[in-house]
Design goal:
By secondary structure, the protein is mostly helical. It is built from 21 helices and ten strands.
Length: about 575
């Protein structure tokens, strides 16, 4: 949370600037309302100065809410943008800290999947909302470019500058194309250092790439050069975007459960592959016949070897002894849990014993699965099938890609004084929401006035400046988190970035499309949509099919930022797209 002394300074400056001021301009030109002619002579260049009539500031600019300061000067509007931007930064910080406290108490699920993504996108959504609500339709049409600039700028900044910085600060040495946690001995090597993530981060990137679909729908009439279907395209895109928002929130709610189930199944497959490899090593003959089918006689002999008391059934203690003897040193394995899962898989009679026929059926089933997954090819040197070793390596790699148990099985630990923490979290969320709602409109007005004073298009001001206010706390926390140089923290960091962009593409876009449709505004943002599509699809494709990013990949992200600005400028002001 920001220190109090940093909070008091902008509040003091803001209160000081609220006092109204009036002035009169000095001029050397006579005014017929100031002088009375004597009817004889005409004074052309009088040797004195005249004061223009008293002009109120309200006649030049409109005060937000009737009392907040406004100005038509460049420096004055720049000052207001800084003050209001800092207040929006405070709102984003309060919302972020309050969300984390609430997650600490209530855990993932509804809170982590539904509320946190919405609260994270709330400042951007507020700014987009007020950019199209104020004034007449003509005023809203001119100011709505501020909302589009924020939407495009936030997406581009997260996927370029922040993404590339996370790769730089989170890099570790690469070994066998995988980053080694906490190890950095090769400096800034472009190919031998980098970051690694889990497979869930790839899924988040794919969802992000899919979330641009509403942009394509709303842009179709412009592509087809049709004017009649533009309003209908906005409505269809709004419905699709809102549906994707609901679907994404539901996925976030159930994702921890899905992740735990997939990780548990991957770990079970790895245990079975270890058992198969152990049996193959200690077999009295081959596990497979010459034609590649499971050798039932050999499997029965292996059963007799494991059945220590020769009672015709494998007890839980005998099965656990087998698992302990295999020594799964490459993963943190709960032996009792592994034993229960293997028992549940093989014991079809539910008598807590694995009979010989159940053992043969179970091993045969998994041998066939290993053949299908690992490929039952014959090694010409040894004359044996190597598919079991490949199956074991593949299950280990699948388990590693899914992440650790620590990451997937998020259990909320007891916190001290949960009542006070809950009250503090709700208070911070309420304060952040109030600040964002109160100062979003003045910030949009200040950007619009600054654009008029400098003749700089408001899109570029909002594209560059506003994301620094609404996403700076998220950016700083992402970079700090990535600097821990671990696969788990890198996975969480990049997943958060992809999730934030997804919320921009569904929640913020839904708000924007609703404004355009309800107020009857014109959708004329072809170049901006093209920039969002290029950045999201390039980075989405880049991150969807790989889990390791060498250091050189950050250059791709960094280059996309100036490329986006240049592309919008060229398309709008040289080719006249807007």
């Amino acid at each position: 949370m920001p220190p109090k002394r940093f909070i008091l300074l902008p509040i003091f400056l803001f209160c000081f600037s609220c006092f109204p001021s009036h002035a009169r301009f000095i001029t050397g030109r006579p005014s017929p309302t100031d002088l009375v002619s004597d009817g004889i002579s005409t004074v052309k260049n009088p040797p004195y100065l005249l004061l223009k009539p008293l002009v109120s500031a309200e006649e030049s600019c409109e005060q937000t809410y009737g009392f907040l300061p406004c100005t038509t000067t460049v420096l004055g509007n720049l000052f207001l943008i800084i003050v209001y931007g800092y207040l929006m930064f405070l709102a984003a910080t309060y919302l972020s800290n309050g969300s984390e406290l609430l997650l600490e108490i209530l855990g993932p699920g509804i809170v982590g999947g539904l509320f946190l993504p919405i609260l994270g996108a709330l400042p951007d959504a507020m700014l987009i909302l007020v950019s199209g609500l104020s004034g007449t339709a003509e005023t809203a049409q001119s100011q709505v470019s501020v909302g589009m600039g924020l939407l495009a700028g936030s997406t581009v900044m997260l996927l370029t500058l922040i993404w590339g910085s996370c790769v730089v600060v989170g890099r570790c040495d690469l070994r066998d194309s995988v980053a080694v946690d906490g190890t950095i001995t090769k400096g800034f090597s472009l190919t031998e250092t980098g970051v690694s993530t889990d497979i869930w981060t790839c899924y988040a990137a794919r969802i992000m790439a899919i979330s641009v679909f509403p942009f394509i729908i709303v842009q179709l009439p412009q592509v087809l050069n049709s004017t009649s279907g533009r309003h209908l395209a906005v409505l269809i895109a709004l419905i699709v975007s809102a549906s994707m928002l609901v679907s994404y929130c539901l996925y976030q709610v159930f994702q921890p459960w899905i992740q735990r189930r997939r990780l548990a199944f991957a770990k079970h497959k790895h245990v079975i592959s270890g058992i198969l490899r152990h049996l193959k090593k200690h077999a009295l003959g081959k596990l497979l016949t010459n034609d590649g089918e499971p050798n039932t006689q050999i499997i029965k002999k292996l059963f007799e070897t494991i059945d220590e008391n020769h009672d015709g059934g494998l007890s839980p203690s005998e099965l656990k002894a087998l698992i302990i003897g295999i020594r799964f040193e490459e993963m943190d394995l709960d032996k009792d849990d592994a034993m229960r899962k293997v028992m549940a898989d093989f014991d079809t009679s539910l008598d807590s014993l694995i009979q010989e026929d159940e053992f043969v059926k179970g091993i045969t089933k998994w041998i066939n699965e290993a053949k299908r997954t690992g490929g039952a090819f014959l090694d010409p040197d040894s004359g044996t099938f190597k598919f079991i070793d490949r199956f074991h390596q593949q299950t280990k790699r699948e388990h590693d890609l899914l992440g650790s148990e620590e990451q997937s099985d998020e259990i909320v630990e007891g916190v001290e004084n949960p009542g006070w923490i809950s009250f503090k979290a709700v208070l911070m969320l309420l304060l952040g929401t109030i600040i964002a709602a109160a100062f979003a409109d003045p910030l949009v007005d200040a950007v619009d006035n600054f654009s008029d004073a400098t003749s700089i298009p408001s899109f570029f001001i909002s594209f560059i400046a506003l994301p620094l206010a609404t996403n700076s706390s998220e950016a700083v926390s992402a970079i700090i988190f990535a600097s821990r140089k671990k696969k788990r923290t890198a996975s969480l960091t990049f997943s958060e970035l992809y999730g934030a962009v997804t919320m921009n593409n569904v929640l913020c876009l839904s708000v924007f499309l609703a404004l355009v449709y309800i107020r009857g505004l014109t959708w004329d943002f072809s170049s901006e949509v093209l920039v969002i599509l290029i950045v999201c699809l390039v980075m989405g494709a880049f991150a969807s099919f790989r889990t390791t990013f060498p250091l050189w990949t950050c250059s791709v992200a960094y280059i996309l930022y100036p490329f986006s600005l240049a592309l919008v400028y060229v398309l709008d002001y040289m080719f006249g797209w807007s």
